[in-house]
């Protein structure tokens, strides 16, 4: 299975060359494929804020490379300039608030920066740390794909319909995805009759990114308006809702793309299982409950206009881009360290204490 999974890795969102981070511009996919080059931390922070790169793990990886770019700049004169470095870290930390992978990656990079050493050696260590964060995310994707597909098989070893929301695929990670990684592995295992992709207003990550990723690999995918999800569940074919996460609290509440909560409520009503697939870098044990997660509010302009064209009356538009699904609505949490069914505080504590599986 692992070889097949590796062969399915076709799309990449980030490409690191020393001194430059190249990002596939996700604002214009799938019709335009263009790469944007970032040469300093400010450019990386802007790319995260403006959604050139998005998805919790990919944001964390981009931020780690942003720190490596800052190191290159501030170590060039022979020593690290702490104040310039702190300003770059602050820029990166302010780029988006909800995905904890951003803060997790920055903390890990900061610890690396704090280690003493001669400039060239320090720079090499910092770049290697960013590369390690990228590589580990890719490995976590592969492990979660295997675990999630095995769980699907255990419940129903036949082709079935799945529903996903937003994009938790190759474009959102350092590998081939969290939720979409599981879906890819399940498809290779003959378990997927069709994937329903919510279009995911207003950025259309489902319509533009998830539908494209799956279609590229010949996995049967059908697009639906977000509002059609309950109707589709009522038809009785869908067995799993499979999504990623931006932040998971100590008790198992999950912040993910706006609309995930209503999917989980509908899924509970219709007897459809909910699987959340996320690496442990998305788990924030410092936050107890979902209501304490900072929820990003983006401009109402994103609802009022589509590709610059007005599509609504000129009224106030409220645009929270994440919501929180309570742990009790989640059937399974799949991480690279293992699967938790009906996640709760005790199980999460045990998982976070466990040694990484690889
Ligand atoms: O606003 P986005 O596109 O960054 O939101 C992305 C999501 O909500 C994803 O579902 C989540 O980050 C998981 S990605 C593996």
Q: What portion of the residues fall into strands of 2 or more residues?
A: 15-25%
CATH fold naming of the largest domain: Rossmann fold
N- and C-termini, Cα separation: 17 Å
SS-derived structural category = alpha/beta
Discrete helix count: 12
| CATH top level class name of the largest domain | Alpha Beta
Name the poorly predicted regions: none
What's the average pLDDT?
95
Major beta sheet, strand line-up: 6-5-4-7-10-15-16
Number of domains: 2
CATH superfamily of the largest domain: Translation initiation factor eif-2b, domain 2
Structure commentary:
This protein is an alpha/beta fold and about 350 residues long. The protein folds into two domains: about 1-135, Up-down Bundle (Four Helix Bundle (Hemerythrin (Met), subunit A)); about 140-355, Rossmann fold (3-Layer(aba) Sandwich). The chain contains twelve helices and 16 strands. It has helices at about 1-5, 40-50, 55-75, 80-95, 100-115, 120-155, 180-190, 205-215, 230-235, 260-270, 300-305, 345-355; strands at about 15, 20-25, 35-40, 160-165, 190-200, 220-225, 240-245, 245-250, 255, 275, 285, 305, 310, 320-325, 330-335, 340. Strands 6-5-4-7-10-15-16 form a seven-stranded mixed beta sheet, with helices on both faces. Strands 11-8-9-14 form a four-stranded mixed beta sheet, with helices on one face. A hairpin with a 2-residue loop joins strand 12 (about 305) and strand 13 (about 310). Helix 2 runs parallel beside helix 4 (about 80-95). The longest helix has about 35 residues, at about 120-155. The radius of gyration is 20 Å and the shape is globular. The chain starts with a helix and ends in a 5-residue tail after the last helix. The model has no long low-confidence stretch (mean pLDDT about 95). Bound molecules: 5-S-methyl-1-O-phosphono-5-thio-D-ribulose. 5-S-methyl-1-O-phosphono-5-thio-D-ribulose binds next to helix 3 and strand 9.
């Amino acid at each position: 299975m692992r070889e097949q999974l590796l062969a399915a890795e076709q799309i990449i969102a980030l490409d690191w060359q020393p001194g430059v981070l190249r990002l596939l511009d996700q604002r214009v996919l799938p019709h335009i494929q263009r790469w944007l080059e970032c040469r300093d931390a400010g450019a990386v922070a802007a790319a995260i804020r403006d959604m050139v790169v998005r998805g919790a793990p990919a944001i964390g990886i981009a931020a780690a490379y942003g720190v490596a770019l800052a190191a290159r700049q501030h170590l060039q004169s022979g020593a690290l300039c702490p104040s310039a470095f702190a300003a770059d870290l602050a820029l990166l930390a302010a780029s988006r608030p909800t995905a904890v992978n951003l803060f997790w990656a920055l903390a890990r990079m900061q610890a690396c920066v704090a280690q003493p050493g001669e400039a060239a050696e320090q720079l090499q260590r910092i770049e290697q740390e960013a590369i390690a964060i990228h590589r580990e995310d890719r490995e976590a994707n592969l492990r979660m794909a295997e675990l999630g597909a095995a769980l699907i098989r255990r419940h129903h070893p036949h082709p079935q319909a799945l529903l996903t929301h937003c994009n938790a695929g190759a474009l959102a990670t350092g590998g081939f995805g969290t939720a979409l990684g599981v879906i890819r592995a399940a498809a290779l295992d003959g378990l997927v009759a069709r994937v329903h992709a919510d279009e995911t207003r207003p950025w259309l990550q489902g319509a533009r990114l998830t539908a494209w990723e799956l279609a590229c690999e010949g996995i049967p995918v059908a697009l639906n308006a977000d509002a059609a999800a309950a109707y589709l569940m009522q038809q009785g074919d869908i067995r799993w809702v499979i999504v990623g996460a931006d932040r998971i609290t100590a008790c198992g509440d999950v912040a993910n793309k706006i609309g995930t909560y209503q999917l989980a409520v509908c899924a509970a009503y219709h007897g459809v299982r909910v699987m959340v697939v996320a690496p442990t870098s998305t788990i924030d044990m410092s936050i107890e409950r979902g209501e304490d997660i900072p929820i990003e509010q983006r401009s109402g302009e994103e609802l009022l206009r589509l590709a610059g064209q007005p599509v609504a009356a000129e009224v106030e538009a409220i645009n929270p881009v994440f919501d929180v699904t309570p742990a009790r609505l989640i059937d399974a949490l799949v991480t690279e360290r293992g699967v938790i069914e009906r996640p709760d505080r005790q199980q999460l504590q045990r998982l976070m204490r466990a040694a990484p599986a690889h």
